[in-house]
Write a structure and sequence with these properties.
By secondary structure, the protein is of the alpha/beta class. The chain folds into two domains: 183 residues, Rossmann fold; 234 residues, P-loop containing nucleotide triphosphate hydrolases (Rossmann fold, 3-Layer(aba) Sandwich). It contains 18 helices and 19 strands. The strands form four sheets. A six-stranded mixed β-sheet has the order 6-7-8-3-9-10, with helices on both faces. Strands 15-16-17-13-18-19 form a six-stranded mixed β-sheet, sandwiched between helices. Strands 2-1-4-5 form a four-stranded antiparallel β-sheet, with helices on one face. It is globular and about 65 Å long. 46% of the residues are buried. The structure holds adenosine-5'-triphosphate (ATP). This is Simple sugar transport system ATP-binding protein. GO terms for molecular function: ATP binding; ATP hydrolysis activity. Keywords: ATP-binding, Nucleotide-binding, Repeat, Sugar transport, Transport.
């Protein structure tokens, strides 16, 4: 058997959009094979075809040289391929054991047996999670491990990991890679999707690049220069990322917090952000940085402390009040707080300006479209047009719509949480550039990110550890220095 997995000459259309155009992939047995491409290149569409969730309009899929099962035979698909998605498929209201086994029981559920089988399964795959814990209480990393164990328990020897590291911090990524290496040694074949090209070099042996719905290249990773990989993705020679020099921030404070505490998340936090300043928030997953940022954006209410936005004191935990005070935000969880899938790109991206675009609460569709078109251009959103529902966009492009919404009202205070998660290399620059532009125009921004590269645009980075700000690091840090503070090794 030459290839464990083959997708040949696949074409898939959604109405006027061709998501895959005679594209394909060939993955050798036991290999970890990367699939990369810009947002909207067709990666997720290939995943849905390789997992049997969608049928191609043309082309075929083979596993170990044999034709893929029929579309209705879900069990046969599950025995051949499993996918761990960035967005969890685990049901939060059920226990881990129920998530692992419920849909495999007969009509009568034997609870005791279910729990013990779940414990055995978790032990087999060395997943240190309580089988009786509620899945909703698990962290991102633990949930992912449960999903991997569930995937393997169906007997699949081919696993697709679709942007698994997008919501993990550094140490968790390392633990995932250790697990992936162990799986590879056991002969498991993997397809790995990521926008982090350094990860591709670290964990994969070969890489396939899709661009504009087509296959453009497959190469062994070891002999592929980084520049060539980026050029294949973007279709142009790589431009050197330029480091912008912004003016020094003014004295005007646009966002301020004093004595903020939220039980179990953070304690005694104070910070102030000036007009023209980007303040980074860094720390591990348990550092409290996301909880703090959510409080600053009005998504959460602190137990004590005070927040001022442009000199006003919006009601804590009241998002509309924060928006009215001049704040814009990009939430961590875009699927819940970020966009309304059935509404169009224009409707989603112009939501906060509805008051302004038309008088007396009426929004003129024409003005909404004009503003939306402008944002689509500025942020390079790949869409059929402003009227397309966001649900039809690729993950990274939906994230850009969330970003557009945060910026559309020219906010004077911005809180952005992991804004480049799931966004391709080139678009990252566009999004971070948009934050810098807003700051140049006089806004102040808080930027929370797990990615050190994102934090480079910050004037200073506040590092959090166990719920407290432990250090204020000025521009000019090295990765090593920042990581040492984040991990509590050095203060
Ligand atoms: N259900 C759908 N209806 C209409 N268009 C769709 C649908 N699903 C995908 N598309 C379109 O197909 C194209 C490919 O999308 P796909 O999700 O495969 O991209 P991707 O490479 O996974 O992107 P990302 O890196 O942003 O996740 C996009 O233009 C997208 O808008």
């Amino acid at each position: 058997m030459r290839f464990h997995v083959e997708a040949r000459n696949i074409t898939k259309r959604f109405g006027p959009t061709t998501a895959l155009n005679n594209a394909g992939i060939e993955i050798a047995p036991g290999q970890t094979h990367a699939l990369v491409g810009r947002n909207g290149a067709g990666k997720s569409t290939l995943v849905s075809i390789l997992t049997g969730l969608q049928r191609p309009d043309e082309g075929e899929v083979l596993f170990a040289g044999e034709a893929a099962p029929g579309p209705a035979d879900r069990d046969a698909w599950r025995r051949r391929v499993a996918c761990v998605y960035q967005k969890s498929t685990i049901i939060p209201a059920l226990t881990v054991a129920e998530n692992l086994f419920l849909n495999r029981q007969g009509r009568y559920v034997k609870w005791r047996e279910l729990r013990s089988k779940a414990r055995d399964l978790l032990a087999t795959y060395e997943v240190d999670v309580d089988a009786e814990a509620l899945a909703g209480d698990l962290g991102v990393e633990q949930r992912q491990l449960v999903e991997i164990a569930r995937a393997l328990s169906f007997g699949a020897t081919f696993i697709i990991l679709d942007e698994p590291t997008a919501r993990l911090d550094g140490p968790a990524i390392e633990r995932l890679f250790t697990r992936m290496r162990a799986l590879r040694e056991q002969g498991v074949t993997m397809m790995y999707i990521s926008h982090h090209l350094d990860e591709v070099y670290e964990i994969c042996q070969s890489v396939t690049v899709f661009r504009d719905a087509r296959h453009v290249m497959t190469r062994p990773v070891a002999e592929l220069p980084h520049d060539e990989l980026v050029s294949a993705m973007t279709g142009e020679a790589t431009a050197v990322a330029h480091q912008t020099r912004r003016r020094a921030p003014g004295d005007l404070v646009v966002l301020e917090a004093t004595g903020l505490s939220l039980r179990g998340r953070y304690e005694g936090v104070g910070l102030s952000v000036r007009a023209g300043e980007v303040v980074g928030l860094a720390g591990s997953a348990s550092s409290g940085k996301i909880g703090l940022a959510e409080t600053l954006a009005g998504l959460r209410k602190a137990d004590s402390g005070r927040i001022t936005v442009n000199g006003r004191r919006p009601k804590p935990g009241d998002v509309p009040a924060f928006l009215a005070a001049g704040l814009g935000f990009v939430p961590e969880d875009r699927h819940h707080e970020g966009f309304v899938p059935l509404l169009s790109v224009a409707e989603n991206s112009t939501m906060p300006v509805m008051r302004r675009l038309g008088s007396f609460g009426l929004v003129s569709p024409g003005r909404r479209r004009t503003r939306a078109k402008q944002m689509i251009r500025e942020l390079d959103i790949k869409t059929g047009g402003p009227d397309q529902p966001v649900a039809e966009l690729s993950g990274g492009n939906a994230q850009k719509v969330v970003f557009a919404r945060a910026l559309v009202d020219d906010p004077t205070a911005l809180v952005v949480m992991n804004p480049t998660a799931g966004v391709d290399v080139k678009s990252k620059q566009a999004l971070l550039g948009a934050v810098e532009d807003a700051v140049e125009r006089g806004a102040g921004a808080v930027l929370v990110s797990d990615e050190l590269d994102d934090l480079r645009i910050c004037d200073r980075v506040l590092v959090m550890f166990h719920g407290r700000i432990v250090k204020d690091v000025p521009r000019g840090w090295t990765d090593h220095e920042l990581v040492a503070v984040m991990e509590g090794i050095e203060q």
